[in-house]
Structures are given as C-alpha cells and as structure tokens.
Amino acid sequence: MLIRNLTPQWILMLILIVIILYLKLRINFLEENYQSLHDAVVQIQSELKDNIKSDVRIHKPKNYEEFVIIYNRVPKTASTSFVGLVYDLCKQNKYHVLHINITNNMHTLTLFNQMQFANNISEWNTIKPAFYHGHMAFLNFEKFGIKQTPLYINILRKPLDRFVSYYYFLRYGDNFRPHLIRRKHGDTKTFDECVSIGQPDCDPNNMWLQIPFLCGHDPACWEVGNKWALEEAKRNLQRHYLLVGVTEELAEFVQILQIVFPRFFKGAYESFLHNNKSHLRQTTQKIDPLPETVEKIQKTVVWKMENELYNFALTHFHAVKKRLINASIQDSNQRFMYEKIRPK
C-alpha cells in the first residue's frame, strides 16, 4: 500500500539506494579479499627470497673454503717432491700448508692427542682451507664424533724399492740436504752385504710401514705380519682416502688431483712437469740389489703382505686413472643433472 502511494521518482530513488548499498558492500568485500591476497603474495615472495638465499648458501663455492686435506706421508715415497709442489702452489691457490711434527718422529699419537688433534684441525677455521702433511698413521675423525672429516691422500711405493732407498738414505743422505750427517753415516756396507750377514738394518720386518700407515692407530696395525692390519689398510684406502697414488706414477697422481680438486691443485700438473720438482729429493749412492737378494726378500711374509697392499692400491689407482686421464668418449662426456624435483 505504501509503495503504491509513492511516486515513480521515490521508487527510483529507493532502487538506487539499494544498488549503492549493495555495491558498497561488494567493494568492501573485494577490498578485504585484495588485502588478504596482497598479504599472501608478500609472504610468498618473502619465503621465496629466503629459499633463494638458502640455496645460494648451500651451493656457494665458499664450502670449498672449509676443506682440509691430510697427507699422512709414508717415508721414501717421493713425498718431499710432492709436498714441495704443494708449497709452491699454496700462495696462488690461496690455502695454508702445515707440517705435522710429532715428538721424536713418532708415527702415532696417544688417545688424548688423537682427540686434541682431531678437534683442533676441525675447529681451526681461520687456517682453512688447509693442507696438513706429516709422517703419521691414518686417524679416523669419525671416531671422535666429527661429521665433516678431512680428505686423506697418500702415495705408496714398491716395498722393496722403498726399503732399499731408506737403507742408503740413512747412510748417504740425499741431494735435498747433502751436507747433513745421517744416522748411519760411515757404514759403507751395501744392502746386499747387509742382507747376507743378517744385519738388523735390513731385516725384512722393517718393511712393515705402508700397511700400518694406512691401517691407523690401532695397536694391531703395528704388529708385524698382522693379517687384520692388511685388510684394515685396504678398507681405509677404499672408504677414507680421496686418492692413493704410487711413486712410479707420480705425474699421473698430480694430474688426477688437479682434475678432481682444482681448488688446491690448479696448475699443479704443469708446474710438476716444468719446474724440476719431479726429482727434488734423490737418495745418494743407491745401489740396486742383486737378483739373489731380491729373491730372498720376496720370500718373506712381510714383503708379500706389503706388496699385496701396493698392488691393491695400484689397481685402485689405475681404475681411477682410466676414467679420468685415459677416459673413453662416454666417460669424458659424462655429466649429471637434477630433475623431477618435488614438491614444486
């Protein structure tokens, strides 16, 4: 009845008022939704930025700045030649080199010093990236709860060649420090004469060195002829060493390190070939043993075990070399990528 009494103008005005109220409500609703959407977009953008920063941190090459390499060098395996090369490269490749000096030239540490050594190397961040070298047995850092363990490398030599070289080194020294008087200076007996009279200096048990160096600090590692020690040395070579080369193929050892780890070894191969470092230290007056002496030594248990480790390392080294230096087309063109990443 009321609507019938209204003029058309009033009816139109009421309709307009209703429409305006409706539109206002819709605008308010849309503004609220827009604000919610805007807030959500801002949050997503913020999360994406955080993720990108996180990814950059993960993949940044700065991780290479935290690497530590330990070269627990076996005596008379061309270790001085190799370490000389490492010192030559340290400035241009921006890493530190440190010699591990143990009291009385001992090859193993007490348990207390093992813990101290492992923690010190792991936590000494200002010196990283770092290359440590010294005549010491392998030490497994995982034993002390350290997650980021160092990379180990080493060089082995044919056991009898190493033994003979060390025998003459103790008497005549080398061309690295020719005027230094050695412990056995004045003893002019040849290695053959020493073996024939059974002198302690040339006791084949003295060859027991490369096995314990790779075996580690367990007392059993240093028991001459211990079969477990040989197997443990093999296991450590496979599990804990980045690379174990051989003296007889030192150039290839350097070349592989340059390919695999240029952060430390960029330019190493060229420097090794052209800077007269390949024979930096040579034992003076070394005489090759007679065939009968070689035959006698090679019949011993220690030589057979040391030679088994050497051949094991050589086979492993050749397998690595085959796929890097003498690579097939398939290996040389090998790449890897990531795909099918979920959630998107």
TrEMBL record:
Description of how the protein assembles with itself and partners: Homotrimer.
GO molecular function, one term: heparan sulfate 2-sulfotransferase activity
Location within or outside the cell: Golgi apparatus membrane
Membrane topology listed for this record: Single-pass type II membrane protein
Annotated GO CC locations: Golgi membrane
Keyword terms: Disulfide bond, Glycoprotein, Golgi apparatus, Membrane, Signal-anchor, Transferase, Transmembrane, Transmembrane helix
Protein name: Heparin sulfate O-sulfotransferase
The family this protein is said to belong to: Belongs to the sulfotransferase 3 family.
Pfam families: Sulfotransfer_2 (PF03567)
Protein source organism: Odynerus spinipes
Broad class of where this protein is predominantly found: Golgi
Stored InterPro entries: Heparan_SO4_2-O-STrfase (IPR007734), P-loop_NTPase (IPR027417), Sulfotransferase (IPR005331)
GO biological process annotation, one example: heparan sulfate proteoglycan biosynthetic process
Membrane-spanning ranges: 6-25
